[in-house]
Amino acid sequence: MVDPRSRGGWLRDPLFAFFAIGALFFVVYALLSRDSTTPITLSQSSKALLISEWEMLTGKSAQGDDIDAILNDYYQRELLYREGLAAELHLSDASVRELIIELMQQRVTGEIVEPTPKDLVNFYTDNMQRYYTEASISFSQQVFLSEPENPEQFREQLNQDGAKPGAVPWQGTDFPDYGVSMIRGLFGQPLLEVLQGLASGEWWGPYESRQGWHYFRVTDRSAPQLLPFERVRDQVLADYQAAAVAQAVADFTDARRFQYPFVVAP
């Protein structure tokens, strides 16, 4: 049988009292923290800058009511900013996320060291595949809204007698030295592949598209040509700087991978 005198003895235990008081302090601190205020401060120099910007924008001298409005606008915007962070909008809004990523990238990379002429030439040499012109094709087309009754016979007539009256395509009829990317944009990938496979000098077709039925005649082709360094120096400089930024970001993220394990949800 338990001694009645021992009931509630744990209430008189000094160790229990110590933990109980600690827990009480924790609860009180949590309640106070929930209701605590964080001041929105504005330095005198920042205040002067806000007023100066307002005066420059409006062309007027800020008076008492104007200054009150300027300060109230600053307060409202700062309050909304802090509430937005508390609501974690930066985690859900794509535009805000991209802005933060861009600003962090700028902080990570810092100022890119200006490359020497030797650096640029070496970069050009190591990445020559970037500085070729694209292949081009010179060709003509005839377009018809419906497929000719005898397509093969009509093709023979084109080769013997030249162009026949057909629909006037919005793209035009003659395409001198058009790059493959431009052809793809005008006609789409399927017709680009057709043109790349055609023998030169004859009319071929018809090939169907949304515009109608096409007959093509390829007259010339140009293979990719390496552009000289002097002609693409500005592009080489831009590529060099982009590569430096990419490397800085890669080094920064690689050094922190242990802090941010990457998990793809099943």
The major β-sheet equals: 4 strands, antiparallel
Q: Helix coverage percent of residues?
A: 40-55%
Number of domains: 4
Question: What is the overall shape?
Answer: elongated
Distance between the termini: 57 Å
How are the strands ordered across the major sheet? 2-1-4-3
Beta strand count: 4
CATH architecture assignment name of the largest domain: Roll
What is the helix tally? 10
- The multimeric state of the shown protein is single chain
- The H/E string reads HHHHHHEHEHHEEH
Fill in the CATH topology of the largest domain: Chitinase A, domain 3
- SS-based structural class? alpha+beta
Strand content: 5-15%
State the low-pLDDT regions, or none.
1-8, 15-21, 23-35
The overall pLDDT, averaged over residues, is 84
Radius of gyration: 36 Å
CATH class of the largest domain: Alpha Beta
Question: What attributes does this structure have?
Answer:
single chain; 266 residues; alpha+beta; 4 domains; 4-stranded antiparallel β-sheet; 10 helices; elongated; disordered N terminus
How would you describe this protein?
- The chain has 266 residues and is of the alpha+beta class.
- It folds into 4 domains: 10-35; 44-92; 93-131 and 228-266, no CATH class; 133-222, Chitinase A, domain 3 (Roll), CATH 3.10.50.
- It contains 10 helices and 4 strands; from the N terminus they run ααααααβαβααββα.
- It has a 4-stranded antiparallel β-sheet.
- A hairpin with a 2-residue loop joins β3 (203-209) and β4.
- The relative contact order is 0.09.
